[in-house]
Specification:
four-stranded antiparallel sheet, mainly beta, 0% helix
């Protein structure tokens, strides 16, 4: 019911910035918590950030807190991840994900996300 398409990845030098976008199809975008995850080579997929359906609450992994900002524009059916002060260890494929707000009491819960995008590569050179 939800199709997600990420964009904005690329190659950037350490200390630089990128903004990822995730465009969602459907008519009920505000009914979904949105999250960003990443997977580095040889490692499992890790949580990066999440934002509630209304945009009123956000959650970040400690490794990106203070450097990354998640936001959404429900009028455009789009969620963003602004990444500043990038480090080589941020190199990964970044995935956008959606979860119905009815399935979780808050964005801090561990309820799995249901829909995933195809991913976009972010490479940070040192």
């Amino acid at each position: 019911q939800v199709q997600l398409v990420e964009s904005g990845g690329g190659l950037v030098q350490a200390g630089g910035s990128l903004r990822l976008s995730c465009a969602a199809s459907g008519r009920t975008f505000s009914s979904y918590d949105m999250g960003w995850f990443r997977q580095a080579p040889g490692k499992e997929r890790d949580f990066v950030a999440a934002i509630s359906g209304s945009g009123g609450s956000t959650n970040y992994d400690g490794s990106v807190k203070g450097r990354f900002t998640i936001s959404r524009d429900n009028g455009k059916n789009t969620v963003y991840l602004q990444m500043n002060s990038l480090k080589p260890e941020d190199t990964a494929v970044y995935y956008c994900a959606a979860r119905s707000v009815s399935k979780s009491p808050s964005i801090y819960s561990s309820v799995p996300y249901d829909y995933w995008g195809q991913g976009t590569q972010v490479t940070v050179s040192s």
